[in-house]
Amino acid sequence: MTNAEIMNKFSLEGKTALVTGGCYGIGFAIAHALHAAGAAVAFCATSDTSVEKALAAYHAEGMDDVKGYVCDVTKEAEVKDLIAKVEKDFAPVDILVNNAGIIKRIPMCDMTVEDFERVVQVDLTAPFIVSKAVLPGMIDRGHGKIINVCSILSELGRETVAAYTAAKGGLKLLTQNICSEFGGKNIQCNGIGPGYIATQQTAPLRERQPDGSRHPFDQFIVGRTPAGRWGEAEDLMGPAIFLASDASNFVNGHVLYVDGGVLAYIGKQP
Ligand code: NAP
Ligand code: GCO
């Protein structure tokens, strides 16, 4: 193979990508990366306000052709409508990134069933719903990429996030199941497992203390991460391009952890 042919495997020219919850944070960074690699990009969020704000951010980065849609990914009818609109405005979805997610930090014995179920709906049921909506088209066209945004909490537990870990652990296995069921149709379904990334979702864990010192959780994470820092949303860009592109055509059912080494590390020795 020539150098050009090898590098071309990372190109997403001619592909259409849908990133759920691509307004800011990890979803925005992934959408930006896929766009930079040549894909036409669509994203969705929960309200007109979110979509409008995000479109302004995409335009500010020179991505004038990105389109945003209002869609609650937990609602199957809205998702079907979304997929039809993306197909009409662009083309059928070649790359789906199930990124939309929420967390509720509540001690387990205080957590209501409603809270638990809402987290599972957004973080686990929604990837099932959106994947189900794009898979038939991917099967017909003979190719497709699904990237599920998992977490290091697909592997580890911690106090107060029972619903989130249950959902993200389930998402890892849903990833393996989609691979198992559709791998023979040339569809690759992989996960990206971010470590602790500095976004809106984790802002409460990084708040400065009244005396100006760093939040104890912030210090804990930096000490727990061999890289010695929080991740940035941009750290997910290269892994997302890889998993969305032909460069990863024989990678299937895998979760690529992007965590600065957290999962490899037992913690600082005394
Ligand atoms: P974030 O800043 O809170 O952004 C979440 C996005 O999801 C927003 O665009 C939000 O849109 C959207 N969303 C939430 N519920 C939705 C729904 N029902 N329908 C459609 N969109 C919905 O989160 P983030 O930190 O970038 O995280 C993105 C993903 O990475 C999540 O799955 C998260 O669990 C995962 N993750 C994050 C970290 C981390 O350290 N930050 C680590 C591992 C994994 P609206 O603004 O309209 O609500
Ligand atoms: C938390 C964090 C995590 C991160 C991430 C870790 O409260 O522990 O918010 O849930 O978002 O998923 O990888």
Features:
8 helices, 41% helix, binds NADP nicotinamide-adenine-dinucleotide phosphate, binds D-gluconic acid, seven-stranded parallel sheet, 270 residues, alpha/beta
Explain this structure to me?
By secondary structure, the protein is an alpha/beta fold. About 40% of the residues lie in helices and about 15% in strands. The chain is built from eight helices and seven strands. It has helices at about 5-10, 25-35, 50-60, 75-90, 115-140, 160-180, 215-225, 235-245; strands spanning about 15-20, 40-45, 65-70, 95-100, 145-150, 185-195, 255-260. A seven-stranded parallel β-sheet has the order 3-2-1-4-5-6-7, sandwiched between helices. Strand 1, helix 2 (about 25-35) and strand 2 form a beta-alpha-beta unit. Helix 2 (about 25-35) crosses helix 8 (about 235-245) and helix 4 packs parallel to helix 5 (about 115-140). The termini are far apart. The protein binds NADP nicotinamide-adenine-dinucleotide phosphate and D-gluconic acid (GCO).
Summarize the structure.
With 270 residues, the protein is α/β, with parallel strands linked by helices.
**Ranges with pLDDT <50 over ≥5 residues?**
none
Structural class: alpha/beta
Whole-number radius of gyration?
18 Å
Strand order, biggest sheet? 3-2-1-4-5-6-7
Quaternary organisation of the protein chains: single chain
How many H/I helices? 8
Bound molecules: NADP nicotinamide-adenine-dinucleotide phosphate, D-gluconic acid
Question: Which sheet architecture does the biggest sheet show?
Answer: 7 strands, parallel
- Number of strand elements: 7
Q: N-to-C SSE series?
A: HEHEHEHEHEHEHHE
Q: What is the residue-mean pLDDT, rounded to a whole number?
A: 98
Shape verdict: globular
Distance between the termini: 51 Å
Query: Helical proportion?
Result: 40-55%
Which range does the strand content fall in?
Answer: 5-15%
